[in-house]
Design a protein that fits this description.
alpha/beta, Immunoglobulin-like, eight-stranded parallel sheet, six-stranded mixed sheet, globular
C-alpha cells in the first residue's frame, strides 16, 4: 500500500476500528473458551467488543492465527499482526542471550537470530518482542538471562547483529524487531523486578542508552517501553524519556508499545488516579499501542468525545500501526509466509546452528590441567542435571523434541567408560548421609568426576529476582564431599545469571559455565568436556565474589583512596574488611585448550584527531598443538578528564581461529567518536589528552589532539 492508500483507509475506519488498531491482546483472548464472565477478559477488564478489532495478538499458535486471519479476510477487516516473544529461539532453542553474548561472535549471533526468525515467520509470527537491550549489572535481577551483559559497547554490537539477523530485509523468513525495555529497566532497586531504577544522568547517557540507540539505528520497527519508574517517573508517563528524547531527539517515528499492562500500572505507581487518566497520560506521551490493559480500549473513545484527545492524534498513531503492517507485508499477504501446518517446519539447519552456538557460548573459567577428558578416563557424572532435558530458558514457547539429556548423549557418543548418579531433588533437600557416602565411595573409584550443578532454569527470567544468588548449600555440600575423595573434579554450572561460586571454585579443579544452552546444549557440553570442541567464550558479565559486591562490573571508577595503593597498617582506603574488592571472575574472563601469545602491538600514529583516526594492530599466535579460537579484546583508558573516567572501557573486539603454530595480525580502527563521554557540562564529547590502549598485557599510548 502507498501512503495515500493508508490515509484513505484511515478515513473509512470507524472510531472504534481505529482504537482497536492500538490494542494488543494475548492469544488467550482469541480462543473459543474465552468468555466474558471468567478468564482473561474479566481479569483485565477488557471490553469484549474490542476483540474483533484488535490490531495485534501475542503468541498465537499457527492454527489460531490462520483462523483469525480467515475471519478478517471474510469480513473485509484489517489483518491482525501476530507478535511473539521470540527471545532465543522458536521451535529450536538456542542458548539464552546472555550466553550467546559470551561468544563475542557477531556473525554467529546474526545467523542464529535469522534462523529462529525463520521458524517463527513460517509459524505465523510477524514481529518479535526482542531484542532486550537492557544493560545488566545486577545479577539478582532475573532478566539478566535476556541481556547481553554489562558492557555497552558489546551491547551496541549485539543489538546490530541480532536485529540485522532477525529483521533482515523484511522478506520471507524474517520478523520485525522490537527494542526493549526503553529505558533503564535493568537496574531495579535491590534487584527486584518492576522496582524503580535510580540511574544518574551521566551513567544513563553513557552506558544504558547506547545499546538501545544502536538497535534503533539498525532499523528496529518497534520500541517497547519499560514497566519501571526511572528516577521516580514511570516510563509510560515519562515525557522527557519518551516524547522528548525518543520521539523528538532520536526521531524514532515507529510504533511504541507499552509493556504488559504497564499503562494500567500507572495507577499502581500512583501517578494516575484511574485507568482513564492513565490512558490520557500514556497516549499524550506517545505510547502508540496498549499491550494487555483495558485503558485504550475502554477510555480512548470517551477522551476523544470530551476533547481531551483529538481524532487527528488518534489517526497519526493508527497510521504508524498500519504502516508497520504494510512494511511487514501483511496487507499483501495476510498469512505472510506461514506454513499450512507447523509439522512441515524443517528445523535441521537451526539444530546444527544451535549446536555451534552452544559450543561457542560455554565459558571455561578454570582448568588445572584436567580438561579435556580423555577417552581412556573413567568418568563419573553427578548432579541434578544428569537426566535433565529442560535446557530451554524461561522464554521457550515449545518443548523441543530434539533436546536430549546429558545421560542420553553419553550413551550415543561413546566417549569413555562412565557412570551417572542423578540427584534431581538436591535443590529441595540435603542428601542423606548414606547417599553422600555412596557418592563419595563411587567418586573415589573414577579418574574424573563431572558435577552438573547450578540453578534450575525457572529460577531466572522475568519475575525471578533473587536476594541470594549463591549456589544452594545442598549442592556446595555435594561438591565438597566429592572433592574430598577426588581432586580431579570438574564443576559445570547451569543457570541464567552470574552466580556466586566462591565455595564451588575452591572445591573444583576445573570450572565451566554452561548457562542455559538450548536444544543442543547436552551434546555441545560433552564435546567440549572431551575436547572435540575447544572452548572460546568469555564472560559478558562478572561473577561476584559475594552478593555484597553487587552491582559489580569491570568499568568501575577510580577513587581518591584506591585499594591498589593500600598500606597494610592503614585501613582507610576503599575496600571490604571481609573479602576482596574484585569479582571472582571478571568480564572478559575465559580460557581455551589452546595457548595464545600476543606481540607487536602497533599504533599507526601516536596522535589522533577527528580527521585522522589511528589503526591499531597486534599479532596473536597459537603456541599450542590444538586449533582454537581466540577473542581479542581492545580496551582504552582515558588518563584525565573533566569528570572521573573508568580504568578501562571496551572499544573493540575480534574473534579469530588459529591452527596449531599459526600467527595472525588483527587490526582495529580507533576514531575520535570512540573517546566521547558526558563531560562536566553533560554534553557528549571527547576531550584532548593522553589515552592508553590495552590488549591483553600489552599497552600503547596516544594523544587526542
Amino acid at each position: 500500500m502507498t501512503e495515500s492508500e493508508i490515509l484513505s483507509l484511515i478515513k473509512k475506519m470507524s472510531l472504534y476500528e481505529k482504537i482497536g488498531q492500538l490494542v494488543c491482546l494475548g492469544g488467550q483472548f482469541f480462543s473459543s473458551d474465552c468468555d466474558t464472565l471468567t478468564g482473561p477478559i474479566n481479569n483485565l477488564g477488557i471490553d469484549p467488543k474490542i476483540i474483533p478489532y484488535a490490531g495485534f495478538a501475542s503468541n498465537l499458535p499457527l492454527e489460531s492465527y490462520r483462523t483469525i486471519q480467515e475471519e478478517k479476510i471474510k469480513n473485509k477487516k484489517i489483518p491482525i499482526m501476530n507478535v511473539c516473544d521470540v527471545i532465543h529461539g522458536y521451535k529450536t532453542m538456542f542458548p539464552i542471550p546472555l550466553s550467546l553474548a559470551s561468544s563475542f561472535n557477531m556473525p554467529l549471533i546474526k545467523k542464529c537470530a535469522s534462523l529462529w526468525a525463520k521458524e517463527a515467520s513460517l509459524c505465523g509470527v510477524s514481529l518479535s518482542f526482542a531484542p532486550m537491550l537492557d544493560l545488566a549489572r545486577d545479577p539478582r535481577w532475573g532478566r539478566v538471562m535476556e541481556s547481553f551483559g554489562e558492557d555497552p559497547y558489546l551491547g551496541e554490537c549485539y543489538a546490530k547483529a541480532y536485529i540485522n539477523g532477525m529483521q533482515g530485509n523484511l522478506k520471507a523468513g524474517t520478523v520485525g524487531a522490537c527494542v526493549k525495555h526503553f529505558a533503564g529497566y535493568s537496574l531495579p532497586e535491590g534487584g527486584r523486578d518492576y522496582q524503580m531504577s535510580m540511574i544518574t544522568e551521566r551513567v544513563f547517557n553513557d552506558y544504558y542508552l547506547p545499546p538501545y540507540i544502536s538497535g534503533i539505528k539498525a532499523g528496529a520497527l518497534m520500541v517497547m517501553s519499560g514497566f519501571n519508574a526511572l528516577d521516580f517517573v514511570p516510563t509510560c508517563a515519562n515525557q522527557s524519556l519518551i516524547k522528548e528524547y525518543l520521539i523528538k531527539k532520536v526521531k524514532f517515528d515507529g510504533v511504541i508499545i507499552s509493556d504488559y499492562n504497564a499503562i494500567h500500572e500507572l495507577v499502581n505507581h500512583r501517578v494516575a488516579e484511574n485507568d482513564k487518566e492513565a490512558c490520557l497520560i500514556a497516549f499524550k506521551n506517545g505510547i502508540t499501542v496498549d499491550l494487555m490493559s483495558d485503558c485504550y480500549s475502554n477510555y480512548l473513545e470517551e477522551l476523544i468525545k470530551e476533547g481531551k484527545v483529538s481524532e487527528d492524534e488518534l489517526d497519526k498513531n493508527v497510521y504508524k500501526v498500519l504502516s508497520l503492517k504494510n512494511k511487514l507485508g501483511i496487507f499483501d499477504s495476510p498469512y505472510r509466509f506461514s506454513l499450512e501446518d507447523e509439522k512441515d517446519l524443517d528445523t535441521k539447519e537451526s539444530i546444527e546452528k544451535s549446536y555451534e552456538a552452544a559450543a561457542e557460548s560455554m565459558v571455561l573459567l578454570k582448568n588445572d590441567s584436567i580438561l579435556p577428558l580423555k577417552k581412556k578416563n573413567r568418568v563419573l557424572f553427578v548432579g541434578p542435571f544428569v537426566k535433565e532435558k529442560g535446557f530451554y530458558g524461561s522464554w521457550s514457547l515449545y518443548k523441543d523434541k530434539n533436546m536430549s539429556s546429558i545421560e542420553k548423549c553419553l550413551k550415543e557418543l561413546n566417549y569413555s567408560s562412565y557412570d551417572v548418579i542423578d540427584t534431581p531433588d538436591i535443590f529441595d533437600r540435603s542428601l542423606y548421609p548414606e547417599e553422600l557416602f555412596y557418592i563419595q565411595k563411587t567418586a573415589s573409584l573414577f579418574d574424573r568426576v563431572v558435577l552438573l550443578i547450578g540453578e534450575r532454569q525457572e529460577e531466572s527470567g522475568e519475575a525471578s529476582s533473587k536476594g541470594n544468588i549463591s549456589i544452594s548449600s545442598n549442592i556446595v555440600e555435594l561438591v565438597k564431599k566429592v572433592y574430598e575423595v577426588n581432586k580431579n573434579t570438574v564443576s559445570v554450572i547451569f543457570g541464567g545469571r552470574p552466580l556466586v561460586l566462591t565455595d564451588i571454585d575452591k572445591e573444583s579443579s576445573a570450572l565451566l559455565y554452561a548457562f542455559i544452552p538450548g536444544t543442543m546444549g547436552s551434546r555441545a557440553l560433552l564435546d567440549i568436556l572431551y575436547g572435540k570442541k575447544n572452548p572460546s567464550a568469555r564472560l559478558p558479565m562478572s561473577l561476584p565474589y559475594s552478593v555484597g559486591q553487587i552491582p559489580i562490573y569491570y568499568q568501575a571508577l577510580p577513587t581518591g583512596r584506591p585499594g591498589y595503593n593500600k598500606i597494610e597498617e592503614n585501613k582507610y582506603y576503599s575496600h571490604y574488611i571481609d573479602q576482596p574488592n574484585e569479582p571472582l571472575y571478571s568480564f572478559g574472563c575465559g580460557l581455551s585448550y589452546s595457548n595464545f601469545v600476543y606481540s607487536d602491538l602497533v599504533l599507526s600514529s601516536d596522535k589522533l584527531s577527528k580527521e585522522k583516526p589511528i589503526k591499531v594492530s597486534v599479532k596473536v599466535k597459537n603456541i599450542s598443538k590444538i586449533k582454537g579460537k581466540e577473542i581479542i579484546l581492545l580496551y582504552i583508558r582515558d588518563h584525565f578528564g573533566s569528570v572521573t573516567r573508568p580504568d578501562k572501557e571496551l572499544k573493540g573486539f575480534a574473534k579469530i581461529s588459529l591452527s596449531a603454530g599459526e600467527e595472525k595480525e588483527v587490526s582495529f580502527t580507533i576514531q575520535e567518536r570512540d573517546l566521547r563521554f558526558s563531560g562536566i557540562d553533560y554534553k557528549k564529547k571527547s576531550e584532548p589528552g593522553k589515552f592508553s590502549i590495552y590488549i591483553e598485557k600489552l599497552e600503547k599510548t596516544f594523544e587526542l589532539i
